[in-house]
Amino acid sequence: AADVVPKAPEDPLFGLMTAYRADTFEKKVDLGIGAYRDDNAKPWVLPVVKKADAVLRSDPNLDHEYLPIAGLQQFTSASQKLILGKNSPAISEKRVASLQTISGTGAVHLGALFLKKFYRPGQTSSVYFSSPTWANHNQIFSNVNLPITTYPYFSAKTRGLDFDGMLSSIKSAPEGSIILLHACAHNPTGVDPTQDQWKQVAEVMKARNLFPFFDCAYQGFASGDLARDGWAISYFVEQGFELVVAQSYAKNFGLYGERAGCFHFVAAPASDATDVATRVASQLAILQRSEISNPPAYGARIASLVLNDPALFAMWEEDLRTMSSRIIEMRKALRSKLEELGTPGTWNHITDQIGMFSFTGLTEAQVQKLRADSHIYMTKNGRVSMAGINTNNVQYVAEAINKIVRA
Ligand code: LMR
């Protein structure tokens, strides 16, 4: 192996995190990795998570046994209800197969692996990504050898959605193609289709017989409203699609390192749909067993306690509003400071975009200069993690951006 293994580059995002941590400059600002921070730039353990954690720890019967291959049953069934809506016909008709996964990444991977093995055997189907998309999508789907294509998504001109480009590209995708869609709070752009635009996408996808693969990492975190952030998925299910969903609890529960997530396969309504879901679940279990045997328990136990208890659930919704509203406040603050400074260009996209990120339009050279001159860290595509901005550093960040844009 010594001669054939070339050195791979460091992961850009985790490399950025390491570089930020090593920086000793007092006013350094981390706008890199998508992880929530409070107004003091500190990680925030959700009060509801602290509470659930205390309940778990005080249980004398808590042990460290294996979970089943498909994960904690109370967790996966509550996750179905959360993402599809508790009155979803897909659930009552028993046509959903759900497995607990290693957070959203594990869910995307399990879905990719499953599709590679079972989707349209004998035919080559490509997966379509938005351009741009979360960097890891490329690696995950390449690793299972699914061909990748992209559809236009972000308009550099408006810093909003290139809806015409998106729709016409999806329209011309070969029948059976897999279309990867970010359910809400698109990463990296922060730009989402409107409900009316989602309806048009669904219509085209149905007419062209395309397969929706939803990645949902920000339900409730984006707008503070779980149903609203999950709307696109429920709508597609209502339209009768066969589809899959990767669901992460990293951001909306702040359970980043606990790796709690879920993968769902929803069979299209049909007389044999329950049977389809059962067969799919059995194959997913084999894939899961060979990859991770069974998922980690701790994060799923915490989420499960909260999802299944009405009082804790209400507390969680409160915590979601705390996070989403702080981010929305910081969007307003950053925009208004840039406008006060008369920074060349328009800055409305900062408040128009939603969720963890803003796609600022800063160039790679500007990003590098911000890091060198002001110790402000962001990904080279100009993506800013809004959670890194707070009342103490927003002025500093705005002034630094102002200076770089004018240079
Ligand atoms: C991000 O894009 O910053 C997050 O989703 C973290 C990750 O795993 O890439």
Bound molecules: (2S)-2-hydroxybutanedioic acid
pLDDT average, as an integer? 97
Shape: globular
Low-confidence stretches: none
What sequence of helices (H) and strands (E) makes up the elements? Answer: HEHHHEHEHEEEHEHEHHEEHHHHEHEEH
Radius of gyration: 21 Å
CATH superfamily of the largest domain: Type I PLP-dependent aspartate aminotransferase-like (Major domain)
Give the second-level CATH assignment, the architecture of the largest domain.
3-Layer(aba) Sandwich
Q: Approximately how much beta-strand content do the residues carry?
A: 5-15%
End-to-end C-alpha gap: 48 Å
- Biggest sheet overview: 7 strands, mixed
**Individual helix count:** 16
CATH topology annotation of the largest domain = Aspartate Aminotransferase, domain 2
Which secondary-structure class do the elements indicate?
A: alpha/beta
Number of domains: 2
Q: What would you say about this model in short?
A:
This protein is about 45% helix and about 15% strand. The chain has helices at about 10-20, 45-55, 75-85, 90, 105-120, 135-145, 165-170, 195-205, 225-230, 230-240, 275-290, 300-305, 310-340, 350, 365-375, 395-405, and strands at about 30, 95-100, 125-130, 150, 155, 160, 180, 210-215, 245-250, 260-265, 355-360, 375, 385. (2S)-2-hydroxybutanedioic acid binds near residues 13, 33, 34, 134 and 187.
